[in-house]
Amino acid sequence: MIIVFFLLLAVRVPVAFALGLSALYAMWAIGFGLELAGDLIATGITKFSLLAIPFFILAGTLMGSLGIAERMIRFFRVAVGDLPGGMGTVGTIVCLFWGAVSGSGPASVAAIGPMIIKGMEEDGYDRAFAAGLVVTGAAFSIVIPPSIGLVIYGVIAETSISQLFIAAIIPGVFMALIMVLVLPFAKRRTHGAPMPAGRSALNSLSPQPYGDAPRGTALWQAFRDSFWGLMTPVVILGGIYSGIFTPTEAAIVATVYALGVGAFAYRTLNAKALFDALGDAAASSAVVMLIVAYASLFGWVVTVDDLVGSYSTALLGLSENGWVILLVVMVILLIAGMFMDPVTVMFIALPIFLPVAREMGWDPVWFGVLVMVNLAIGLITPPVGINLYVAANVTRLSIEQVARGTMPFLLASLFGLIVVATVPQMSLILVEWLR
Questions:
Q1: By mean pLDDT, which of 295-299, 309-313, 340-344, 387-391 is the weakest?
Q2: Distances, alpha carbon 220 to alpha carbons 72, 82, 224, 367, in Å
Q3: What is the pLDDT of residue 207?
Q4: I need a labelling partner for 111 at 20 to 30 A (CA). Which of 95, 98, 361, 408 fits?
Q5: Segment (H or E) for 387
């Protein structure tokens, strides 16, 4: 089954169908009735928690198309002003902030990438370096809560999604700080080349986009313009942590909130914008949910054939040292992330790794955050780093150029991964405090 899966990937069969076809082959080879497939696929996606995925994607799409992202970038641009790093620091902050809205790496690149890259070029950053920052920052959207990846992990591991969200806050901010520390090493020009024609960007990304107004006045105007957008993570995360609604319900609240802000606060919502946002969100959600559906079939075969027990036992037999086993797990996840998207990796690998984690006594919440950081790095590593392809389309650079631009951030992210792995308390301190 695994060989067939990789052969199908090699001939460029979409990953969802590669999962489904290889699982059907295994069911036929082992002797299971193929009539079970329909029920197994339906069972795999009829889980209440998975409703969060399409609604978080829709909320992020709406906020990108209704001008909320643009206003947020303007505010952070004025707030940062002439601080070191300039628009690079703004880009990192906005990627971090936007992660708390969309929960999807590729969606974040598409929504805010053109505006951030344009502003960084105006600050003298190389376009490939700017694309690398956006690609990396958006990748950590699956770490910053609310995260689609954490929702899926919580479903598979049967772990509290709210605790996963809380645990991911400090590691997510830490990864962003590491990215900011990379900025001083970038080669900067006096003037940047313009973005390709036809790409949307802010009309003005200068530190003073409000004319000649004093800094304090400009900051207040920018805050007032972006207030409802800045309140989005407060509404979502505040409602979850206060117990007003669950993470799944928060996705629907986020969607309704985005519609309300677009319709009444900014008055940018119209029939065309709504239709386009629904279409984009439906397409993105379909890709994720197809993978979830067929991956559940794949995972069922792995479980029934006791591959989980065999591989878990083999992994535990490598060493009695927990750090060695953890290193092997992280290396496997990093390599898998180079070839598959995070959702696929989780459905294939977690049934094997979770029993190992329980046997080693690892906290499932900390392990979930560690898995997300691993998989976020996978989004920026070729040959199948999804964010790289989206950024290449946005900037009209080649995949190789964008990949080179991500290298400084990739090295910094690997350092951050080591810290998150060796300091579990970074992930657990808020969870324990709130308990």
A1: 309-313
A2: 13, 17, 6, 41
A3: 41
A4: 408
A5: helix 386-395
- Give the span between the Cα atoms of 383 and 212, in whole angstroms: 47
pLDDT tens digits, one per residue of 183-197: 887 766 644 444 443
The tokens of 211 are what?
A: 């004319």
Beta-carbon count within 10 A of 25 CB = 16
Torsion of CA 358, 362, 368, 369, to 10 degrees: 180
Report the candidate in 215, 278, 272, 229 with the shortest Cα–Cα distance to residue 77. Answer: 215
Q: Is the pLDDT of residue 85 over 70?
A: no
Give pTM, 2 decimals: 0.74
Model pLDDT for residues 135-168, shown as the tens digit of each residue: 898 888 788 887 778 888 998 898 988 899 899 9
Q: Which of 386, 388, 384 is nearest to 404 (CA)?
A: 388
Which tokens hold the place of 207? Answer: 């530190």
Burial class of residue 175, CB neighbours in 10 A (0-12, 13-18, 19+): buried
The pair of structure tokens assigned to 336 is: 């898998």
> How high is the mean pLDDT of the chain?
81
The whole-angstrom distance between residue 165's C-alpha and the CA centroid of its chain comes to 13
**Half-sphere CA count of 287, side-chain side, radius 13 A:** 15
Amino acid at 284: S
Sign of the alpha-carbon dihedral angle for 369, 374, 375, 377 = positive
- Give CA–CA dist 119/353, Å, rounded: 42
Q: Is the predicted pLDDT of residue 28 greater than 70, yes or no? A: yes
- The span from the CA of 198 to the CA of 190, in Å, is 24
Q: What is the pLDDT of residue 261?
A: 92
- Spell out the alpha helix ranges (H) of 145-270: 148-157, 161-182, 215-241, 247-260
Listed residue (148, 151, 144, 149) closest to 166, CA to CA: 144
Residues in the chain: 435
Distance, CA of 180 to CA of 372 (rounded, Å): 20
**Contact indicator for 337, 345 with CB cutoff of 8 Å:** yes
Please calculate the CA angle 306-308-309 and round it to the nearest 5 degrees. Answer: 70
